[in-house]
Amino acid sequence: MSSLHHRHLAVSPDWLALYYKRPLEITHGEGRHVWDADGRRYLDFFGGILTTMTAHALPEVTKAVAEQAGRIIHSSTLYLNRPMVELAERVATLSGIPDARVFFTTSGTEANDTALLLATTYRGSNQVLAMRNSYHGRSFSAVGITGNNAWSPTSLSPLQTLYVHGGVRTRGPYEHLGDAEFIKACVADLEDLLGHTRAPAALIAEPIQGVGGFTSPPDGLYAAFRRVLDRHGVLWISDEVQTGWGRTGEHFWGWQAHGEHGPPDILTFAKGIGNGMSIGGVVARAEVMNCLDANSISTFGGSPVTMAAGLANLSYLLEHDLQGNARRVGGLLIERLRAIGAGSSCVREVRGRGLMIGIELVRPGTDEANPEAAAAVLEAAREGGLLIGKGGGHNTSVLRIAPPLSLTIPEAEEGAEILAEALRSVD
After folding, report:
1. What is the C-alpha separation between 29 and 48, in angstroms, rounded?
2. Which of 44, 183, 220, 364 has fewest C-beta within 10 Å?
């Protein structure tokens, strides 16, 4: 055990998880690579949990941070803040929500917490619909609606949560159905659920479930849900903390795969927009955002430094068409990984979009989740010089792959080869 690891254990909660049997201290990064305290370089396919979205040490972002820090680091939302207004204007336009208002927070958890506050206040209801296998953060309210027991340490909640089918396409009671029939069955389940309860405040859903193992429904499910929700006056909150900013390649926002009936009522975002700086936020149409009848501010949300980073990062993302790069390079990477998976006895499925890819592992010859294999592949990939993540529903048996969106084709090929070798080590 390293000295730093020993010190970490002495002062940190037991539930504060660390990856790897020999936990890794990352000291610096550049592009799609990071280095550890021993000087070893790794190809980074997890980006600090989908947060280093464009690249490590991106000059445009570091320059913006340094220049803003040289002027003023903090003021709070009690004062006018030019970088915050400028970023809010851009996010409001990009969101697709008409007459949009933007409120900045410091994390995705806090963004979802704010969205729940808005929805329950606007609707006068503390009942919320959420998806099975979901994850929305670690605050008391976010944990209360999380549909994944590995990330929900308490059943106590200020909200009454009802869980809906549909977030996982290839497992569960409807997995045998075709896409159209799957959507029809999930809509029927939602209709039935609403017939047995008072009208909820909102449905909150990740277009692609992150911690749940990068699972998703067929395109159009949430549009079909929206027809039902609108009849009951129920709001739709799209949790874009992991799917936003073009990561899926095909769309800028995950909700756009379900956008037949327009944008969500509320959209939450975080992670990638700051490229590692602490930014989250909520977008909602004005009548929903303005429904609160008490004072509210944010001490750290909208910090001048983080807003400067977000503006520089968003500009780089759009000017260099990183969404297009995610579509092109991600498409090649998914096909490469599917070919590798076809030759592995423990790979059940390779799924995902753009640079948001999951590899689900099972015990050979069965459909049973294999968290031990996932942990072993994580270790083997690290030994090969590649950092990945893991997740999943009932068991943590999905490898999560989400590199910075500037990933190159040679880097994708290199990472795929390391993963192939890591999978061979557990077959």
Report:
1. 11
2. 364
